[in-house]
What does this fold into?
Amino acid sequence: VSGSADAEAVPQRSWEQLARGAARGADAGGETHALRQLLTFVVGGAAYAVSVEAVREIVRIRPITPIPRVIDAVRGVIALRGEIIQVIDLRLRLGLPAAEPTRASRIVVVHVDDGRVAGILVDAVREVLRVAEEAIGPPSGGDAVVVEALCARGNEFVSLIDLERVLDIDAEH
Amino acid sequence: VAARRSSPRRRARRSSKADREFVSEAEEILESMRGDVLDLCDQRDAGREIDPDLVNRLFRSAHSLKALAGMFRFDPIEDLAHRLEDILDGLRLGRVGLVPEILGLIEESVHTFAALLEEVGDPDAMAAAGEAIVDLSARIGRATQAPAPPADEFGSLDLEPSLLRALTEYEEHRLRENIRRGRQIVLVDATFEIISFEEGLSELSRSLREAGEVLSTLPAPGEAPESQINFSLLAAIDTNVDDLAARLDFPSATVRSVLAGRGGAGAPAGARAAAAVPSRPAAVPSEPAAVPSEPAGVPSEPAGAGPEIAGEPEDVAAHDAEPPHGPGLSELESLKSLSDTVRVDIRKLDELMNLVGELVIQRGAIGELVGRLSASPETARLASEFGKVHKALDRKLRELQSAVLDVRMVPLRQVFEKISRVVRRMRRDLGKDVRLEIRGADTELDKLIVEALVDPLMHVVRNALDHAIEPPEERLAAGKDAVGRVVVEALQRGNHVVIAVSDDGRGIDSAAVRAKAESAGLVAPSESLSEKEILDLIFAPGISTRGEVTETSGRGVGMDVVRSNLTALGGVVDVDSTPGRGTMISMTLPITLAIIQSLIVGVARQRFAIPLNSVLETLLIEPAEIQRSEGRELLNLRGEPLLLRRLAQDFRLEGKAAEKPCVIVMGIGDQRIGLIVDRLEGQQDTVIKPIQGPIQSVRGIAGATDLGDQDPVLVLDVSALVEDAIRRREVA
It folds into this structure.
């Protein structure tokens, strides 16, 4: 959890640089195996991650306006430099019990390939992890909802989140 | 022509707004024509096939210029444009070849237009110019004498004769060209859902165009299943049939070869290119009679083309050299633009608008600071000076805001012009005589709204012509004028613009609409509905997208789409119809979407913004004043019943309700309801932003706005709330 402050300090541009650096590293020769950069964070005591390329920025918790008539996992909207962005509570999306945000909570603003943008509410942001492609394997059970892969880090497993699936939400409840 | 080149003195005389508008639009058309003519010369110089799109674009430009000049009554320009249109029409139909004489005439016409534009605003000079172009017109007339139509050469095609007969002259020409070039000709049959056929069709055409050229798109004969429609596309392709079928990836499309390509179907690209070479000399569609000097053989063609083309620029230069100022000066002058207009990408205006919006938010924050400073005695004096500066800033900001808004406003004229063009064409296609009247073309609206309005408006007008206006015999039998009438009228009402399309056709058969609604399960047979409520059903999705209602009710496909398009713009659409007398569809739209005044209200712990242009009044009431009828809550508003809705209930907001509720009387079009909220929190300038994220839309919410403090505020979609309340719709 101590890494969260550092992650917070990384401005948006650097994320892009990191992403580009990761892309360069992959085809720079020298190493034969590709490296992937993952942003790891904590939800309900477990480690999760998304590709750094998908991360636009990380912001501190701020007032969230609830949207009526939608499922609870969509906590509401935040204003970010003139943009209005929906915030998804990853706890609820993972089927965990709801919890009030704390000082360590962060909103990870992500964008997926089709241009959709969303904020993902997590308990805390940890660090950027560089892992070899070989270290990433399929998820444990067949019941994985939004986890697309597992990545071994020492003796801990980090679950890689499939953002497309996280954002795939049936509108009204 | 050259002697009448404008001097600065004359330019200053051209002052009327209409003249300036004309010159600015005509220049834009002319600019694109110049570019196209240059491309045409290039293609010809390179001995390449002349791109039919290029000729078509030039033809359309000449056509637009003609229409524009006609509208502003510049007869010489209109006449010449008409002549030019003749040449280009001949060219695109293959009646005349792109020989130096024709190319020269096209260039001369474009130059003459440029010269004529400088005379706009000087009627005498214009009249003189009219005489001067007679000679040019006559030369064009001689050059475009149509040769005898070619004998039927499509016998070798495996095509229905009825399909061949349906081809236009242009399509026949393109077919001929492609056969000559040895391309494979195929017929693609496809079936689409009526609701979405435009999308599917354009997708299919796009894929076909990647493989070659779409020669004709025809509605296919034969029975289509209910709610589906068949199309046949005749295309010329470079690949073989199987490759094409695989590439199309349309389950409903079947591809059939009509004529095998000369290069051999599926031959490798290199072989095909080689096969195409022998046919190249004819690429410049040269009519032997028109170009006796044009050599026919491949090797001699480039040599022959050289000197001829070289002669062209000289010809042009001779024109430019004529002005008395001498060539140097005239060249400088001709580069200068005639109008003072700048055309700007609308996105740049959006950015500007966003910046202004953010400034407005900052201004609010400063106002709050002033308030806090004046509360303390130590800073009160500073606060009052600060307050003055704030007020001045406020005033300038408002001016800036309205100036930016003003830039975005455009008259509806262009949209109405488009409509009358479509009506003219439909009149010809349908064989119906309909008079179109247009009123209020000067009414201004935000450019974005105007753009978004084109399709729904066109749809409504098309429906009126297609279905509402009866055939002449039927009209005469009903005691009406044989010529139908459709009126498109725009007028401003406060912060809204109303655009009404009315016809004197057969009106809507409400019994048929009701029957349809019942069979679609939208209305219970026992339910009693007013005439108005029944008419409103034409906008319901299940009804208007079915084909049968079209014939019986006179209102067609896609009225639900019209409604949803308008709702997206914050507008509403209403219908009024009298059987046998006619129908009126009226669309009410806000003047601008950019910055709007909103009323901020509080419900439970949340705030909402309501666009002020839909708020009629606000009332503070005692709970005892609320009356009930059939489970609905009502308020007696000066003798009229006002239907009430509770926002807390609609949005399931928990919290203690206020002791004295506020009622926001809001309406759109001619419908109104009272919305019960807990508190009024004042008015604010708001910039409505879309909500980004996985949830695409929430009924009742139009967007959100950042007021610069705390959390963002959701903006209510008044038309959806009013509609739901009146239709008694309970959401989930």
User: Anything to note?
Assistant: Residues 23 and 36 of chain A are 8 Å apart (CA to CA). The helical segments of chain A are 4-9, 12-26, 90-93, 163-167. The two ends of chain A are 34 Å apart (CA to CA).
